[in-house]
């Protein structure tokens, strides 16, 4: 178990397809003021960039150690919880909670494994495809008459909430000891599940509708353990290559 402020080193701030390099630097500054250091960028438009360095204002060490990824799946590698930040409700999405509640869940999970807080692009936020990689959706309760919040300002709010949650956190309350499945293990399960559903004719790839999105939402609520993922994949493998049932033992 990791204690108190060291928990912040388990939190990953992930920015997806950031358009303005200045927002990256300002986000790094916001993180450093609250003790966070793990910044990950997914397909930024311009990075490294002089504007990012200028806006970081002394937080260039975070920029120097920033990880740049080609996909969100890569950015979430090793995490067991990804919380997507959204400024609006979605028609079909994961459980939606306040930013404060989401941060509290992040700190709880961070005792055992890395956690990611995921932000979308400045103009449109997270896409539905990006939200599919998250297990929880959180929203900053801004003024509904003017809810437009700058990306770096949103990172500052979440960074502050993370620091306060750590300082107020009494310790882990989760009692189970079984490790949770990582993001990449869950993604392999989804790929395997989709393949089997196509093979058995349950999923038409030409008209998939929202089946996989709904299944992702369902399993996301379950917070699957590693062993549970292994069981599910074993069932899928047996579905692909069924064997005759074992004969019953004679009485």
UniProtKB/TrEMBL annotation:
Subunit structure: Homodimer.
EC code(s) of this entry: 2.1.1.200
Family from the record: Belongs to the class IV-like SAM-binding methyltransferase superfamily. RNA methyltransferase TrmH family.
Catalytic activity reported: cytidine(32) in tRNA + S-adenosyl-L-methionine = 2'-O-methylcytidine(32) in tRNA + S-adenosyl-L-homocysteine + H(+); uridine(32) in tRNA + S-adenosyl-L-methionine = 2'-O-methyluridine(32) in tRNA + S-adenosyl-L-homocysteine + H(+)
Any one GO molecular function term: tRNA (cytidine(32)-2'-O)-methyltransferase activity
GO terms under biological process: tRNA nucleoside ribose methylation
Keywords, comma-separated and alphabetical: Cytoplasm, Methyltransferase, S-adenosyl-L-methionine, Transferase, tRNA processing
GO annotations of cellular component type: cytosol
Alphabetical list of SUPFAM superfamilies matching this protein: alpha/beta knot (SSF75217)
Location(s) in or outside the cell: Cytoplasm
Identification of the protein by name: tRNA (cytidine/uridine-2'-O-)-methyltransferase TrmJ
NCBIfam families: rRNA_methyl_1
Task of the protein: Catalyzes the formation of 2'O-methylated cytidine (Cm32) or 2'O-methylated uridine (Um32) at position 32 in tRNA.
Domain tRNA/rRNA methyltransferase SpoU type as annotated: residue spans: 11-160
